[in-house]
UniProtKB/TrEMBL annotation:
Membrane topology: Multi-pass membrane protein
Transmembrane residue ranges: 7-28, 40-63, 75-94, 100-121, 133-155, 161-183, 213-231, 251-272, 279-303, 309-332, 344-363, 369-387
PROSITE patterns the UniProt entry points to: MFS (PS50850)
Key words, A-Z: Cell membrane, Membrane, Transmembrane, Transmembrane helix, Transport
SUPFAM superfamilies: MFS general substrate transporter (SSF103473)
Organism of this sequence: Chitinophaga defluvii
Subcellular location: Cell membrane
Principal location listed in the UniProt entry: membrane
Domain (Major facilitator superfamily (MFS) profile): residue spans on this chain: 9-391
Descriptive protein name: Multidrug effflux MFS transporter
Length: 408
């Protein structure tokens, strides 16, 4: 594979992966404006974020079998078209219930991009490069939280929150064009793959019974739910509690994203010397300790704006190390079932993320404690799951033992 082709593949797969996060991050600064216009609360608007997470979680299970049956690109066409239409619909809503419903539909569309991009990493690159490729994808994804909230703040202030959804629709259309004209089909359709409920369920069960998969997929998903708690709670914490402006919130969110994306790139360098298994364990230990310190400081009123930002930065750095390695280790045992495995991984990740998001929204408290408590709890539980689950892996699949088909 030439360097130029490698670059374009990473760029397109990265934009597919980033579509969901961009759809989450860009409208966060508009929460107060949306709440005012739709006559609800900021926490009420947060339910539209939760419905998005639920939609992505449900859609992952839908697209996994479709990707294995029809190849990667046809389901992508359907999903991206649905995303564009739902984004345009969000511009016209007059009630919070309508926004919550359309955000669910928008998520169903966007998760086709998320599932396909992960499966195509497993299709196009050898297993030994998967963690590195996931780190590179996170570099592209990292543009989202660094740019999206800042742009969203300025767009909301200048044009209103509806313009955000117009921009998202345009983005979806551009990505659809890139998929049609520049992304290769990486998996031949398998007409023998049944779409009946029982075979699909049996297929998912065969995936989840793999000890290496369930250990690292649950570890990664539980740890990652801390990020969803942060994303869901941050508008309340920064704009309501600390009283920062929409534009300032966008810059804070962008700064914190530097920790997450920066550590994921340092991870690529560490992989030259250390195994993914080692990095995941150390990262989760640090993440759990940071979460506990964060919670104790918040409960005792010891943290102001600066302290809150600093501890969030460290927490997200730890997650940036843990996430790509957990994803790579989860998918390593699979080749033929990569679509189903990636969709199941995404569904668990988004499902637990949705629970974390709903948990933050339901508290509706003028306090950062609920957000931080969920973050600390998720990191600690993920560490426990990792330590316990590793004992069940009798024949771990490492980077040197399997390779995927590579397109040259």
């Amino acid at each position: 594979m030439t360097n130029k082709r490698y670059f374009y593949l990473i760029l397109i797969l990265g934009t597919l992966t980033a579509l969901g996060p961009f759809s989450i991050d860009m409208y966060l600064p508009g929460f107060p404006a949306i709440a005012k216009e739709l006559q609800t609360t900021v926490a009420g608007v947060g339910l539209s974020l939760s419905s998005f997470f639920i939609g992505i979680s449900a859609g992952q299970l839908l697209y996994g079998p479709l990707l294995d049956r029809f190849g990667r690109k046809k389901p992508l066409y359907i999903g991206l078209t649905l995303y564009i239409l739902a984004s345009l619909g969000c511009m016209t809503v007059h009630t919070i219930d309508a926004l919550v419903a359309l955000r669910f539909v928008q998520a169903i569309g966007s998760c086709a991009a998320a599932v396909a991009s992960i499966a195509m990493v497993r299709d196009l690159f050898p297993v030994k490069d998967n963690a590195k490729v996931f780190s590179l994808l996170m570099l592209v994804v990292g543009v989202s939280p660094m740019i999206a909230p800042t742009v969203g703040g300025y767009v909301t202030a200048a044009l209103g929150w509806q313009a955000i959804f117009l921009i998202l629709a345009i983005m979806g259309a551009l990505i659809l064009c890139a998929v049609i004209f520049w992304l290769p089909e990486s998996y031949q359709p398998d007409p023998t793959f049944s779409l009946k409920p029982k075979p699909i369920i049996n297929n998912f069960l065969s995936v989840i019974r793999e000890p290496q998969f369930y250990t690292y997929v649950f570890t990664g998903a539980i740890a990652f739910s801390g990020l969803f708690a942060y994303v869901s709670g941050s508008p309340l914490v920064f704009m309501d509690i600390f009283q920062v402006s929409e534009k300032t919130y966008g810059w804070i969110f962008a700064f914190l994203s530097v920790g997450f994306i920066g550590s994921s790139q340092v991870n690529s360098l560490l992989l030259r010397k250390y195994k993914s298994e080692q990095i995941v364990l150390i990262a989760l230990i640090c993440q759990a300790l940071t979460g506990i310190v964060f919670l104790l400081g918040m409960i005792n009123g010891l943290l102001g704006l600066g302290g809150t930002i600093a501890l969030l930065f460290v927490f997200l750095c730890c997650l940036g190390f843990a996430n790509p390695n957990a994803a790579a280790l989860s998918l390593a045992p699979f080749s033929k079932q990569a679509g189903s495995a990636s969709s199941l991984m995404g569904a668990l990740q988004m499902g637990l993320g949705a629970l974390a998001s709903v948990g933050v929204s339901l508290f509706n408290a003028k306090s950062a404690v609920p957000m931080v408590a969920i973050m600390a709890g998720s990191a600690t539980l993920a560490l426990v799951v990792l330590i316990t689950g590793r004992r069940t892996i009798t024949a771990p699949v490492t980077a040197s033992e399997k390779s995927a088909g590579v397109i040259h």
